[in-house]
Task: inverse folding
């Protein structure tokens, strides 16, 4: 995926966003594997698995508003309208790109199936993408508040402790605030 971001973010915002998104994707994976039950399904997401015999990430889809959905994968997140397009954030990068549309009946299961494209030059399209970008960041903060309320902060600490390959530098106690701060910084970048 080589399409450049339509929203140039300062380097420090991109770096912090990349760290947060990597951590968040790890945490969503923990929520999926939770022995007491899949938290994403409990939250209201529907799951689409890759076709049988195909390697890839399950896609989790939920409505945020009548014309806005959130799609989560192990490799990133999408917020937008399935037919008009939306914002995609790839894990490890945090450089928002525009994806023209997704098929709700057959969501991508690998990052190479997403087709980022150039954002239409119309100001209203750019404003809509910026709103969706901020909505995604704010939604993540709200989701983490829900997880804290539903499972407690010790659950999130346990999720971090399960990671043997990654050393996350963001304390889980600050996760909600970090996403909120990132949304505020992102709002100022347009």
Result:
């Amino acid at each position: 995926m080589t399409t450049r971001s339509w929203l140039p973010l300062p380097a420090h915002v991109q770096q912090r966003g990349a760290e947060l998104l990597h951590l968040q994707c790890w945490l969503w994976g923990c929520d999926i594997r939770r022995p007491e039950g899949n938290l994403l399904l409990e939250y209201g997401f529907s799951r689409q698995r890759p076709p049988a015999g195909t390697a890839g990430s399950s896609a989790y889809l939920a409505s945020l508003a009548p014309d806005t959905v959130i799609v989560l994968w192990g490799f990133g997140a999408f917020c937008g309208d399935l037919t008009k397009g939306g914002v995609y954030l790839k894990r490890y990068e945090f450089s928002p790109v525009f994806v023209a549309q997704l098929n709700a009946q057959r969501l991508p299961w690998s990052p190479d199936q997403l087709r980022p494209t150039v954002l239409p030059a119309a100001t209203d399209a750019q404003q809509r993408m910026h709103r969706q970008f901020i909505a995604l960041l704010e939604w993540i903060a709200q989701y983490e508040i829900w997880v804290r309320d539903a499972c407690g902060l010790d659950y999130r600490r346990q999720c971090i402790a399960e990671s043997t390959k990654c050393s996350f530098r963001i304390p889980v106690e600050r996760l909600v605030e970090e996403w909120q701060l990132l949304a505020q910084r992102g709002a100022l970048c347009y």
